[in-house]
Amino acid sequence: MKRFVVVLTVWMTGLAGVLGSVFFPVASASAALPAVVPAAVSTPGGFTSVAPFRLLDTRSGLGAPKGAVAPGGTVVLQVAGQGGVPLTGVSAVVLNVTVADPTASGYVTVYGDGTTRPTASNLNYVKDQVVPNLVIAPLGAGGKVDLFNGSPGTADLVADVSGYFLSGVPTASGAFVSLAPSRLLDTRSGLGLATGAGAVAPSGTVALQVAGRGGVPLTGVSAVVLNVTVAEPTSSGFVTVFGDGATRPTASNLNFVKDQVVPNLVVAPVGADGQSTCSTAPLAPHTWSPMSPGTSFPGLRWLPERSGPWRRSGCWIPAPGWGRPRARLPLGGRWCCKSPARAGFRLLVCLRSC
Fold it and tell me: 20 to 30 A Cα–Cα from 4, which one of 82, 303, 313, 352?
């Protein structure tokens, strides 16, 4: 069997998510939608889009001295007052950051000028690669952001602004709150995992607690902004991020190939328990999934390969009260049974490809 594993890292950039920079308060059921959406908002946490405008290109000297950024070097970029962004009253901006002509593998971290550089990346690259990523970056002193080149080699950097968020304490539902980037998940070290360090198994799912961490409130948050990165995948695949307890959508947030390190910005809904879930693909044989009663296969949450209390040779679950199949399943087949009741709940457990 071809094994597929993937390492995930997640850091938050806002309150609406667990990665670190924004949040969207949940609207009340009776809240009325505005009849007209203005071109520019005036409420704290509101977003205003602008026509994409290039602020930085180290190849030509736009926004910074001309020349590739040195290894471990930092570019200080003036954003406020440029490209339609106001001089004051802005908490964060939306940037499309691109690395070009890197001479070695590395990463880029974007953060508010004058603040401590977070131990997280917005953009990862390899030698000679040209790769962009969308970034929501908090503004620092004087309306500036810093772009750090975390590489032993040089790299050119390009940044285009496409919108901004207003500063202030949000009072309207759906407003955005900027946070200092905070890493919530790293499967390489076990950060954010209850099961310890380890790559995510084929079609595995990581349930990540977001509410109450990294500056995100415990309640009143509908979504969070995450920078999700995949590292060291052993096969091509994709990552889907969705609210814990919800049905996994048939869409991907991040696509990758073998051995690639690639990030993407994700706005992820938060589940009822304050968690977001990261699911990997493709589906692997010998994987079992607990599901809510009545849901269809595949389930809501995939567990790591061979982690369940079942024996592959006989394709059965030895846990008391769980029952067992009448016959061995063919490759690609499945068998489902209900768990014993616990605290008023049951799990529907399925075995596949035993």
Answer: 313
Contact indicator for 206, 193 with CB cutoff of 8 Å: yes
Does the predicted TM-score (pTM) go above 0.70?
A: no
* Domain finish residue from 143, 166, 189: 166
* Residue 279 contacts residue 251 (beta carbons within 8 Å): no
314 in the same domain as 277: no
Residue 170 backbone dihedrals phi, psi, to 5 degrees: -65, 135
Report if residue 318 sits inside a domain.
yes
Written as one string, the DSSP assignment of 44-87 is TT-EEEEEEEEEEETTTTBTS-SSPBPTT-EEEEE-TTSTT--S
pLDDT tens digits for range 132-178: 999 999 999 899 999 999 999 999 999 999 999 999 888 888 888 88
Let me know the angle formed at the C-alpha of 267 by 265 and 273, rounded to the nearest 5 degrees. Answer: 130
Strand order in the sheet with 254-256: 205-209, 275-281, 237-243, 254-256
DSSP bridge partners of 206: 278
- Cβ neighbours for 68, distance < 8 A, ≥ 6 positions apart: 58, 101, 103, 154, 155, 156
For residues 223 and 253, state if they share a domain.
Answer: yes
pLDDT band of 280, cuts 50, 70, 90: low
Could you tell me the residue range of the domain that residue 291 belongs to?
A: 285-354
Q: Give the max Cα distance, the chain.
A: 72
Together in a domain, 230 and 262: yes
Within a domain: 35:
no
Per-residue pLDDT tens digits for 292-325: 333 333 332 323 333 333 333 333 333 334 344 3
For the chain, the domain total comes to 3
Same domain? For 347 and 248 the reply is: no
Closest CA to 131 of 309, 261, 314, 21: 261
Which distant-in-sequence residues (6+ apart) come within 8 Å of 343 by Cβ? none
State the pLDDT confidence band at 40, using cuts at 50, 70 and 90: low
Phi, psi dihedral angles at 142 (to 5 degrees): 70, 15
For 102-123, the pLDDT digits (tens) are: 999 999 999 999 999 998 889 9
Residue 67 has pLDDT above 70, yes or no: yes
